[in-house]
């Protein structure tokens, strides 16, 4: 029956993370997966999360199925965080928001919904993008193309080429964009570039699908959501996936959400209904525990403040580590490659190291990066930055691209 099943080659991120766990070498360094580790190399339990979890556990409740759309208090708190408490679209009731299994679940539910109602549309992702984007949309039945994004020569954005390509897409094309802290490059659009791009998407009748997995890791919680607020301001229908894996350090609880900005409250009600039908067809309804924690933190002023403060201090630590590795690589790495450690934002730097060089880093030094050259700078600390910088310098000197 199953003899014809071919072997799974593995996932470029998750399988590498599993390989790291099996690596017996002492002093190995995991800069592969997008996870924030603290100065001691531990996965933090945020103080507000700890308190909220204690609160949730102190009130043991029966565990019925949640509604297919998820926990109502969570959905409302998500909408307020992502769109702003005073968002006019929120007041008009024209955003459909539902709880999903992490950001990936939001992308999958959104993909199923679009596939059903826009069957002629293609999906366009940035070149490069998070590996799982293409996978999710192709598995949902889409043809996936790319638009220009990253400029390898400068370590920056090819905005003019990106805009020109998107301007030429057929109407109703789905354009997948990263709200902030672009994964894998750490290169984002400026506010002015967002405003211009959104104007073009509106004019060309395109459907933006924004993925916001790193809210709070760029310029701040509100600033990172600029693109989403601008979509509302310019009155552009769109889908928005968001995740609390990173900014709540709640990876395993799979807390995410999908929101759809509609033209009217009536359309939003119908869209929400069809999104819940996609949930039913995939996994029926989402789990309770993580959603109760997130909702409690976001709606309790003291916990909310504690969470925001701790998130800000995580960002400061990442910025410090960017400076530390930059200082250690100076003189050993060409200037053009060096500048991006400081210029790129969020958890990642796109180092410019080739797959061969990344393989050498892993095999010879136990330093793990994604083979695209993506480094998770959020996992650097005082204890591993020297070894990482020395390994990179050695590999650059010895291993051709
Ligand atoms: C990453 O990009 O490393 C994270 O988002 C984890 C994942 O699921 O790929």
From TrEMBL:
Against Pfam families, the record matches this protein to: Aminotran_1_2 (PF00155)
What SUPFAM superfamilies does its record include?
PLP-dependent transferases
**Molecular function as annotated in GO:** identical protein binding; L-tyrosine-2-oxoglutarate transaminase activity; pyridoxal phosphate binding
- What InterPro entries would the database entry show? Aminotransferase_I/II_large, Asp_trans, PyrdxlP-dep_Trfase, PyrdxlP-dep_Trfase_major, PyrdxlP-dep_Trfase_small
Q: Which UniProt keywords apply?
A: Aminotransferase, Pyridoxal phosphate, Transferase
- At the top level, the lineage of the source is Bacteria
Q: Where is the Aminotransferase class I/classII large domain?
A: 27-392
Q: Name one GO biological process term.
A: L-phenylalanine biosynthetic process from chorismate via phenylpyruvate
Q: Which GO terms describe its cellular component?
A: cytosol
Q: Which cofactor does it need?
A: pyridoxal 5'-phosphate
Protein family membership: Belongs to the class-I pyridoxal-phosphate-dependent aminotransferase family.
- PANTHER family noted in UniProt: AROMATIC-AMINO-ACID AMINOTRANSFERASE, ASPARTATE AMINOTRANSFERASE
Return the protein name: Aromatic amino acid aminotransferase
Task: List the lineage, top down.
Answer: Bacteria, Pseudomonadati, Pseudomonadota, Betaproteobacteria, Burkholderiales
